[in-house]
Every structure is written in C-alpha cells, then in structure tokens.
Write a structure and sequence with these properties.
This protein is an alpha/beta fold and 279 residues long. It is built from ten helices and nine strands. The strands form three sheets. The chain has a five-stranded parallel sheet with strand order 3-4-5-9-8, sandwiched between helices. The chain starts with a helix and ends with a helix.
C-alpha cells in the first residue's frame, strides 16, 4: 500500500473500532486511537516490496509466520478489527465485541484466529514476548516478534525484568513499540508515576532505541522498523510519541475518553469526518 492508502486504512479502522466500542457500550476509545498507525504500519506496511509481518489468514499459526502481541491488552479491539479486515474471521463478528458468547472479548483471546497470547493483566506481556523470541532463537528460526506496550505499563516492575532478560539473551528478533501517549486512566503518566527517561533507561538495559517523534506518521514508523531490522544482537525499542484519542477532535489528550465509548451523536460526528478525511 502507498502512503495515501495506508492513511485511508487508518481512518477505516478507526471507524470499525469506534463502532464496535459504541455498540458494546464499553471499551477504550481514546486508548485505542493512539496506536492505530502503529498497527497499520505493521500489518499493511511494506519495506523493500515485502510485507513487514509475515502472515497468512488461511493458515493461522503457520510455522513461518511472524508474531504480533498486543501487550496493551485493553486495546485488543484494534487488533481484532485488523484481523477481521485481513480475513482471519468474518467482519460481522465485530458487532458482538464484548458480548456474552462472543470470542471477541475485552482483552486478547487466543480463540481469535491471529491472536497469539492472552494478555489480560498489565506487566507480564513483555515477558511473554521475550520468551517467545527466545524460543524462536533457540530453534534457529527467523520469525520475528513484534509487541506493543502502553507507556503506563512501564510502571510495572516485571516489564523491566523482561527488558533486562531480552537484552541479556541478545533477542534481536524482538521489536517492542511503546505507545507513548502520556495519559493513563488516573491522569498524566508523569503525575501517576513518572517513567522518564524512557530512552536512557532502555539503552542502559542494553536495548537499541529508535525514536519516532510522530507516532501517527506511518512513514516515520516504517523507517523505524527498517532500521530495527538491522539490529545486531540487541532487542529494539521503537519509542512512538502518540496522542490519546487521535482522530477524535474533542477527545484528543482527554483522560476522560481513555476508557469511554462514544455516544451515538459523537460517533456519528466522528464517522462523518473520518470518511471525508485522512487522519
């Protein structure tokens, strides 16, 4: 896909996600919007004419596939919407998000084709991603592991234990994105528990850090991934500055919308705008 097509895909996915959350009357509208471009770059982007993430919707669990883990578990609907768009399951299933009996539950569910691991509690996801990357290296496989983490989750001690382990075992097949939108459910991340300086800390732990100043600029993300692919014996952190509620003018940088669905009127306003613009 070219740049325009990737931006259109981002707008489409925003609509799909917001509609699913609105219908469920439950979900994290603002928190989901901040990482749309990261996921679009991974699932639809190309480097050198090749897809970034190797996947086959007809063969979920294919042994040569790459792995994408949503560690920011409360934003699982973003990954669900993309997997549906790619044909892993029927898109109509999004209408049943968070409903009793649906396999599309609030947090990543391994019953969903294309979902690798259930990440329901903050803090342990990077350990899962590191363990997977380590097992692949032990088997001398070339699969890559991509993981997406929220900046608030960096307040969890186990994240840093996993970061230390990943560097110690030279997991250069692990690429971690931090969705740094600066807000969490209780307020600004710096006020709740300051995790800065992120880059300095990860570098001290032995990671290569690539800084993306605009985490909604797909070209910047693709360039960062291209550079990450050249890492030698180091796991890579792609540190993306993002905006909570991106694409929803009245919700951008508003803590209130972190875990709130849009009302019917709000949804109608946002959908109309997204259909006529590239966010």
């Amino acid at each position: 896909m070219n740049f325009l097509a990737l931006n259109k895909k981002s707008s489409q996915l925003r609509i799909d996600v917001l509609k699913a959350i609105n219908k469920a009357k439950s979900g994290h509208s603002g928190s989901c919007m901040s990482l749309i471009e990261i996921f679009v770059a991974l699932y639809y982007g190309e480097i050198g004419g090749k897809k970034i993430v190797k996947l086959d919707a007809k063969k979920p669990g294919w042994e040569d596939q790459d792995y994408v883990l949503m560690l920011k578990g409360h934003a699982a609907i973003v990954q669900y919407a993309i997997l549906a768009d790619l044909g892993f399951f029927e898109k109509a299933e999004l209408d049943h998000y968070r409903q009793i009996g649906s396999f599309l539950q609030a947090y990543p569910n391994i019953k969903v084709p294309g979902v690798i691991s259930p990440i329901s509690s903050h803090g342990y996801g990077l350990s899962v991603a590191s363990g997977l990357a380590m097992s692949l290296k032990m088997d001398r496989k070339l699969n890559k592991v991509f993981a997406i983490l929220g900046d608030g989750e960096l307040q969890e001690g186990q994240v840093w234990e996993a970061a230390l382990s990943a560097a110690h075992f030279n997991l250069n097949n692990l690429i971690l994105f931090v969705d740094n939108d600066g807000l969490q459910i209780d307020g600004p991340t710096k006020a709740v528990m300051n995790v800065e300086p992120i880059q300095t800390k990860f570098e001290a732990f032995g990671w290569k850090v690539i800084h993306v100043l605009d985490g909604h600029d797909i070209d910047q993300i693709l360039d960062a991934v291209s550079r990450a692919f050249t890492s030698n014996r180091q796991p890579v952190l792609i540190w993306c500055h993002t905006i909570k509620g991106r694409g929803i003018d009245f919700a951008e940088n508003k803590v209130w919308y972190h875990d709130a669905p849009l009302s019917d009127a709000e949804l109608s306003e946002v959908v109309n705008k997204l259909k006529n613009s590239n966010v």
